[in-house]
């Protein structure tokens, strides 16, 4: 039994797209992260004229949440404007894994959802425990 409301989270991810700054790709992505207390923090992709500085919606949501003092998360929903499922990129998988390794990742195409465990999306992950061995 999920400890969050999937429909509400998916809707929040979809709504978050309206603040996307996707001037270059026109690929607008929204993400909504939910804490274990049910609080939802949203993000959208922010593109730069120096393309490589672009930040994905998932990392915007996560960094917003962390810097607002939120620590414990249950799930993230991701919605893009192309009507298809938008799996998180490798960089986002890593950063999410660093701070929320046990979350569910919910992809929506606007009609249907697909839910994964982040751990299944980033097998054999590099993790914090490697660093304490130095
Ligand atoms: N993007 C995201 O925001 N999240 C993803 O999961 C994949 C890609 C953004 C980055 C860039 O602004 C645009 O989508 C095209 O790559």
Automatic annotation (TrEMBL):
It is an enzyme of class 3 (hydrolase). Gene3D superfamilies: Cytidine Deaminase, domain 2. GO terms for molecular function: cytidine deaminase activity; identical protein binding; zinc ion binding. Substrate binds at residues 45-51. The active site is at residue 58. InterPro entries: APOBEC/CMP_deaminase_Zn-bd, CMP_dCMP_dom, Cyt/Deoxycyt_deaminase, Cyt_deam_tetra, Cytidine_deaminase-like. It catalyses: 2'-deoxycytidine + H2O + H(+) = 2'-deoxyuridine + NH4(+); cytidine + H2O + H(+) = uridine + NH4(+). Keywords: Hydrolase, Metal-binding, Zinc. Its cofactor is Zn(2+). This enzyme scavenges exogenous and endogenous cytidine and 2'-deoxycytidine for UMP synthesis. This is Cytidine deaminase. It comes from Caldithrix abyssi.
């Amino acid at each position: 039994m999920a400890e969050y409301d999937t429909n509400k989270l998916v809707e929040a991810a979809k709504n978050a797209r309206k603040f996307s700054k996707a001037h270059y790709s026109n690929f607008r992505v929204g993400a909504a992260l939910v804490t274990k207390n049910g609080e939802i923090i949203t993000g959208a992709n922010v593109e730069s004229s120096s393309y490589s500085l672009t930040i994905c919606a998932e990392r915007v949501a996560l960094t917003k949440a962390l810097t607002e003092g939120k620590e414990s998360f249950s799930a993230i929903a991701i919605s893009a404007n192309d009507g298809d499922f938008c799996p998180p990129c490798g960089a986002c998988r890593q950063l999410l894994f660093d701070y929320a390794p046990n979350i569910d990742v919910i992809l929506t195409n606007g009609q249907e959802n697909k839910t994964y465990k982040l751990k299944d999306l980033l097998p054999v992950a590099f993790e914090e425990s490697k660093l304490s061995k130095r």
